[in-house]
Design brief:
The complex is a heterotrimer of chains A (about 325), B (about 100) and C (about 180). By secondary structure, chain B is mostly helical. Chain B has 3 helices and no strands. Classes of the chains: A mainly alpha (about 325), B mainly alpha (about 100), C mainly alpha (about 180).
């Protein structure tokens, strides 16, 4: 493999492939969300655009694209403009270290297989956590720059919530990292060849799911955008493409946390035990597991009522953090034994 | 790799900007931010020398500096909030009660 | 290959350094404290980039986690809490600002000239102690063996800061 292919063409191809897939998934995740919740509430959901409303997200996207971009009169224009960008860039950058397989030849396009991840950093998991912590600023600054009371309240709530839940989220991932003995995402998946980590790390797994829902501001922890009290939370004043950016960031973050859960607890691209005879390609297994998580997100939203804010903070600091610390002690005890 | 002296000049510039912030601004919060900048300038040196001398101790020290910076910010901001409660302002020239 | 390594090891770091100096100036000279906080966020991210180019990827991630994930959020929180509109008509700078600026420029010039004339050795091409197995492992091995006592003291320091911050921000009614 010569230099141009190895260092320029191949990374570009991988980046394009990953981002295309992510954006497509995000687009149809909005459709899936409306459909799933509609069926759970015995409704039909979007039905007008295309067969079964399948083209609805494209119509929505076009509408947002053509909509007038309103900037509130006393808004801080620079911050108002930069906030959606700060929200979406970290969400997309996280996909840099998400592996969708061990090695890939891009369906036989390449002669020799290449690693199925854009960059196999040796700080993979830490990188995702570090990058995704920047996403908070998009929400907080967007809320402040709108110069309006509901967005500010939503932004403050959301920042406090995300900072609080980042701690148990990180601590929950320490367990799998200790068992895999590496931070690299590929390394963690390969360490699960014999036993998926969600069995020994069941405590961390459950805490991770709860914190992931809170970290992405989804129901039942969607206090930052609680419609009944805060109109639409931090993005009340946003419209057009800037609003679309916030929306995209939220859904991209959902995919990121699902992908981390799949990598750290559910064996990434490895086939499901007792189903190996299906001989599906690795990325299909990966997509199936991530898809199951995404469905879980929608299911939880359709099932549970919203938490009260003080309850949310109390459960984060007084329950989840001690639980993850206990989990780390137990893991260390069994690893050292 | 760039010469060590360029890294040192860079960190001196950052440190100088931090000193400038503490000297000329009157807002306690921005002075705290400038303090953070000075700590980071020191950290850059530690990490650069850890690379140039091939010794990991510099990186370990940078972690300790970050610990100190984090606790300093927590306390500093708590003091700023307490001051704001008392005087309704974070402008440092309002806090002159110890002046003889 | 040559061109890319040349770029990465020489010019990229100068670009990042220049940008971070510009954003650092933004911290000090922004009229609005929120703009200062945004400048600080960009400065910290760029400094993490500098760490990355010095083969300290673990420190770069820690820099992002500690500063972007924690410290600057705290700053932004407090800045938003202390009603900024009240500060708008106040003087931004001290009376003797010009004098301070001259002093600081002098400091930079003198120290910079000293550093530039000092005979430093060349950087080693291959670093064995740091990069073998990634800087994470090297830092951890050092941190938990040689520096275990400072590490424990640092944890006590953080605990003290935690308790101190809670007590300081408690309002008078609750005490």
């Amino acid at each position: 493999m010569d230099f141009t292919t190895a260092y320029i063409l191949l990374p570009t191809a991988k980046i394009l492939a990953v981002f295309l897939v992510v954006l497509l998934v995000v687009l149809f995740l909005t459709y899936a969300e409306r459909k799933v919740i509609a069926f759970m509430q015995v409704r039909l959901g979007p039905m007008r655009v295309g067969p079964y409303g399948i083209l609805q997200p494209i119509a929505d996207g076009l509408k947002l694209f053509l909509k007038e971009d309103i900037i509130p009169l006393k808004a801080d224009k620079f911050v108002y403009w930069i906030a959606p960008t700060i929200a979406i860039v970290p969400a997309l950058l996280s996909f840099l270290v998400v592996p969708w397989g061990n090695e890939t030849t891009f369906f036989g396009l390449l002669k020799e297989p290449t690693s199925a991840v854009i960059a196999d950093l040796n700080i993979g998991i830490l990188y995702i956590l570090a990058i995704s912590s920047i996403g908070i600023y998009g929400i907080l600054l967007g809320g402040w720059a709108s110069n309006s009371k509901y967005p500010l309240l939503g932004g403050l709530r959301s920042a406090a919530q995300m900072v609080s839940y980042e701690v148990p989220l990180t601590l929950a991932l320490v367990g799998p990292v200790m068992m895999a003995n590496t931070l690299s995402t590929r390394g963690i998946v390969e360490a699960q060849k014999h036993l998926w980590f969600f069995i020994p790390q069941i405590l961390a797994f459950l805490v991770y799911i709860a914190c992931a829902v809170a970290e992405t501001n989804r129901a039942p922890y969607d206090l930052p955008e609680a419609e009944t009290e805060l109109v639409a939370g931090f993005h009340t004043e946003y419209s057009g493409m800037k609003f679309a950016f916030f929306y995209l960031a939220e859904y991209a973050n959902m995919i990121v946390v699902s992908a981390i859960a799949t990598i750290c607890f559910l064996g990434g691209w490895l086939p499901i035990p007792y189903l190996e005879f299906l001989h599906l390609p690795p990325f299909v297994w990966f997509a199936l597991k991530v898809g199951a998580f995404l469905f879980g997100f929608l299911w939880i939203r359709a099932t549970y009522p919203r938490y009260r804010y003080d309850q949310l903070m109390a459960i984060g600091w007084k329950f989840f953090i001690p639980l993850t610390l206990i989990n780390i002690f137990i893991t260390a005890f069994f690893l050292l034994k | 790799m760039i010469p060590v002296s360029h890294v040192l000049v860079y960190s001196v510039i950052l440190f100088g900007i931090g000193v400038l912030g503490v000297l000329i601004r009157r807002n306690a919060l921005i002075m705290l931010m400038s303090l953070e900048l000075m700590m980071n300038a020191a950290n850059i040196n530690l990490i650069a020398f850890s690379r140039y001398l091939d010794n990991v101790a510099g990186q370990v020290f940078a972690i300790f500096v970050m610990c100190v910076a984090a606790s300093e910010v927590a306390i500093g901001l708590a003091i700023a909030v307490a001051l704001y409660r008392n005087k309704n302002s974070v402008q440092i020239d309002y806090f002159n009660e110890l002046k003889g | 290959m040559e061109a890319l390594t040349q770029f990465l090891s020489h010019y990229l770091i100068y670009i990042i350094m220049g940008l971070s100096v510009a954003t650092a100036l933004g911290i000090v000279f922004s009229k609005n404290a929120v703009h200062s906080v945004i400048s600080m966020l960009f400065t910290m991210v760029l400094i993490a980039g500098v760490y990355l180019l010095f083969d300290a990827e673990f420190l770069a991630a820690v820099q992002l986690l500690v500063y972007a994930g924690g410290i600057i959020v705290l700053f932004l929180f407090v800045v938003l809490l202390v009603a900024l509109h009240k500060l708008e008509n106040l003087r931004l700078y001290n009376t003797y600002s010009l004098f301070s600026i001259i002093l600081v420029i002098l400091l930079i010039v003198i120290l910079g000239a000293t550093f530039l004339t000092m005979p430093f050795g060349e950087a080693p091409k291959v670093v064995s102690n740091i990069v073998a197995g990634g800087s994470t492992e090297a830092v951890a091995m050092s941190l938990y063996t040689k520096f275990i006592l400072p590490f424990e003291i640092a944890s006590v320091l953080l605990l003290v800061a935690l308790i101190g911050a809670i007590i300081l921000t408690k309002s008078g009614a609750e005490q």
